[in-house]
Amino acid sequence: MKLRLSALPLILLSVTGCVAMPSESNSVTAPESQYDARVIDGEAGTPLTVQQLAGRLADTDIVVVGEYHGHHASHLLQARLQQALFRESPRQVLTMEQFNVNRQDVLDRFLAGDLGETEMIEDAEAWDNYRASYRPLVEFARQQQLPVIAANAPSDVVRCVGRKGPGYLETLPPETRTLLPETPFLDTPAYKEKFVEAIGGSHGTGDGQLSERMRNTYHAQLLRDNTMARAILDARANHPGHQILHTTGTFHSEERLGTVAVLEQRAPGLSIAVITPVFWPHEKDNVPLEANRSKGDYLYFIQPLPEEFRDPEREREAMQALFGNRKSADCE
Fold first, then answer.
1. How confident is the prediction along the chain (332 residues), in pLDDT tens digits per residue?
2. Contacts with 72 (C-beta within 8 Å, 6 or more apart), sequence order
3. Class for the domain spanning 41-305
4. What does 38-105 look like in DSSP terms, one character per residue?
5. Are 125 and 69 contacting, i.e. CB atoms less than 8 angstroms apart?
6. CA distance linking residue 137 with residue 157, whole number of Å
7. Measured in whole angstroms, how far is the alpha carbon of residue 129 from the centre of its chain?
8. Does the record's keyword annotation contain Signal (predicted)?
9. Taking the CB of residue 66, how many other CB atoms lie within 10 A of it?
10. How many CB atoms lie within 10 A of CB 118?
11. Of 119, 153, 129, the residue nearest 75 (C-alpha)
């Protein structure tokens, strides 16, 4: 599987899929633009409005909305669903993969009005697409005085685990280690299999075993999932009776794997709904809807993104430049 260049710095945040429209008379229609998302019930295959979806989710403890990072339709759907869920129940907490747990104090100061947006973006090391993609979510929460929780593992720690392996956590100072879950690498066999297929394929294993480099990369992925799960559960504990709306790359949630699987292991009594993006197909001979139902309790169809490169040499040069410019972490 070929990963988009724009997703590479964000460690396995999405994988693509295709789905055909249902054949029933009330079938969902194709999205008309890059902003358009068509929601369906994943089990019944019937279309829903965002408000209808919110009504169904009104009593759900945790609502996880997967996204393709930077896709306009994903971010617009998240903003609309946030507002629709708030209308159903104003006791809401927003938890976000897009901020790291060691920057919660910066986010809190911004929400309190003590920092300007540019100051927050710089000090919190917000993602480059914050203004275009996540500003509406954070601003709605701020206007309604709702908590916003930085849920992801610190980027430098993730990078160092990816380079040196899970033992790197033992070298962290106590103030950093306490930000991470006690058991940081819970997983499921299905998730490991999916991970290897997504980023390594046949090149990632040898004699049925993960290579050392692949194992370290996988542990870095698990650290993100487990840290997000802990942040969500802490938010539930700190805000009893509140619904959690969690935004994350779809790889962390589809098929109820990743962060969702960790949540189900750690808190099996909570109700969790997974909402997953699926790219609308180009061709007539499409993968049937049945092949995608398991990706989420609800699916939303969006238009595919354009190819970034047609020239393999230019793509190779761009990838080299990208990784050459990435911020290095001191893992010693």
1. 344 444 433 433 333 333 333 334 357 788 999 999 999 998 888 999 999 999 999 999 999 999 999 999 999 999 999 999 999 999 999 999 999 999 999 999 999 999 999 999 999 999 999 999 999 999 999 999 999 999 999 999 999 999 999 999 999 999 999 999 999 999 999 999 999 888 765 444 444 467 898 999 999 999 999 999 999 999 999 999 999 999 999 999 999 999 999 999 999 999 999 999 999 875 544 555 667 889 999 999 999 999 889 998 898 788 767 655 556 668 87
2. 34, 35
3. alpha beta
4. EEEETTT--EE-HHHHHHHTTT-SEEEEEE-TT-HHHHHHHHHHHHHHHHH-S-EEEEEEEEEGGGHH
5. no
6. 26
7. 14
8. yes
9. 29
10. 10
11. 129
CA triple 218-219-224, angle to 5 deg: 100
Query: How is residue 48 written in tokens?
Result: 């829903």
DSSP designation for 254: G
